[in-house]
Amino acid sequence: MSAPAPGPRATGVPHTDRREAMATHQQARQPDTEDGAKLRVESARVTYRSRAGNVLAVDGIDLDVADGEFVAIVGPSGSGKSTFLMALDGLVPLSGGRIRVDGRPVDRPGPDRAVVFQDACLLPWRTVIDNVAYGLELAGAGRKERLRVAARLLALTGLGGFEGFYPDQLSGGMKQRVNIARALAADPQILLLDEPFSGLDAQTRESMQAELLKIWDARKKTAVFVTHQIDEAVYLADRVVAFSARPARVVSQWRVPFPRPRPLELKHSREHRDLEEEIWEVVRAQRAPDEVR
Ligand SMILES: Nc1ncnc2c1ncn2[C@@H]1O[C@H](COP(=O)(O)OP(=O)(O)OP(=O)(O)O)[C@@H](O)[C@H]1O
């Protein structure tokens, strides 16, 4: 483990917490499971190849995520965050480096990981409960078992009573709850979330954040969450990782010092805002090269 970061500027949080919160990429603490990371990314590189040219989207990312840790990734638009998340799921191949889950190489999607995208891609002809149960159906689970699991997840995501509704009878926030319940149905160990709340209004978004923390806590998942919203990253995560402009590299990371459970009011505290500002300054400083490589 690397040396502790030097004392940061005053943020109003206790000194040891502030020291934890401020960490540059050289000094940031990796998860405590140095040799037993749930997710280990080493020198990951992704290049999109096409006739129009090659685009180097991710360039040499190293990242360890501990079992049960919640990591948020922030960075400029087009920096390679979604690409990185898709690589974690095995949806895009690496052109260099490697990704492992519990020591096993990731080269395709698997039941140990589930992705939640911004748009809830629900099957419109299926009811809410059948949408959630769909993955279990594909996995060969019996109907009784599927419905039992799906009903439990719908209750957990606040949708008890809506089992028989169809997607077009739901609000955006409700659809995204179904989407999260669906991702949880196969009981993945790692949840990969790509701006899942960006299409929601501010109030719904806030309640979904609180909801997600409840679910994450109840189900003890490891989570990697991509977002543009720094306040969301700080509120949700144990650690915030900032990417450079494309090609994505890790430029900085911060351990978030706030204890859990975190009330929504925490977002309005000075400590929370100071940390947001600190991260925002780093993200803002990233500049995108326009050329295609
Ligand atoms: N299928 C593809 N083929 C070629 N280039 C791609 C492809 N998908 C993404 N890219 C390029 O890779 C780079 C990174 O894109 P990506 O979507 O990963 O960024 P991002 O950080 O998630 O962006 P945003 O924050 O705006 O959602 C961009 O330059 C994009 O144009």
From TrEMBL:
Alphabetical UniProt keywords: ATP-binding, Nucleotide-binding, Transport
ABC transporter domain: residues covered: 39-270
Segments for region (Disordered): 1-37
Keyword set includes Nucleotide-binding: yes
Gene Ontology molecular function, alphabetical: ATP binding; ATP hydrolysis activity
InterPro entries per record: AAA+_ATPase, ABC_transporter-like_ATP-bd, ABC_transporter-like_CS, ABC_transporter_ATP-bind, P-loop_NTPase
Protein's name according to its UniProt entry: Putative ABC transporter ATP-binding protein
Lineage start: Bacteria, Bacillati, Actinomycetota, Actinomycetes, Kitasatosporales
